[in-house]
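Narrative of activities, Objective 1.

The group set out to show that a structural description can be obtained from nothing but a protein's sequence at a throughput compatible with the screening campaign. Below is one input-output pair from the validation batch, recorded exactly as produced.
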Amino acid sequence: MRRLSRRGHLARQGFLVLVGLFVLLPIWTLVLMATDGSLIGYPEGFHPLPVEPTLDRFVEAFVRTDHPPDFVTLLRNSLVVSGSAAVASLVFGASAAYAFARLRFPGRDAGLVGILLGAFLPPIALATPLFILFVTVERTVPALEAFGLRDSTLALAILYASFALPLCLWLMRAAFRAVPADLEEAAFVDGATRFTAFRTITLPLAMPSILVAALVAFLLGYTEFALAWLFIDSPENVTLAMVLAMATTGFFTSNWSGTAAHALLMSIPVVLIFLALQRALLQSSLAGAGTD
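Output recorded for this entry:
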């Protein structure tokens, strides 16, 4: 019996090692491509270590400005668009999620199902209707046409927020339902309004799950590029994900080493956000495991 248990333990450990290699190998390959000075064009073969170690590709990402937009502009656009989408998803999603979690009104369940169905639609399937909608709105409102709504980072933020909203609403609704209603009722007895109870009791207790929803919305906008190419025409509004997607289209002629360096630099904000929200992610998973 002990031998079987030991074999099972070794099998589990071996499986975890294989999973770890499966996850880490692409990342290590990306690091090799970005730090190998001998790599020109498409990589041929696999080397466990860089042939000519260098950090020139990372330096060029910041100092090379002969092909605008530069890396700093691309990263800024990506952070502004994805951050704005996350904030908008939280602001509108939190109010709607609280209403679906606490209030009773006609059509509540049907409305919730209808909103959640939007999360199952691929964004690219709605590309043409959304493009026509933005063009129509621009032509209807002269101020928006003068501003250039369609060809702007604001348009991308609106698009990404609308696609992230159903999932954020679902996550925050579950978090609000996990907060005991008795706590709010006790606040009502003390004379608190519903908004005060929501702001001082429900919102802080549900904050870990809310941060998870914000992270989901941020990642959706940070990595999306297909819709962006349909709306964005001006180089100064291009995001980093759009440039990386375009760089991979030239299979034999692309600067793969530079593309890998840009991809690694793009991942740094995501890693920092994950590290900052690590405690919130753990609390959210534990809270989800303890709810029905």
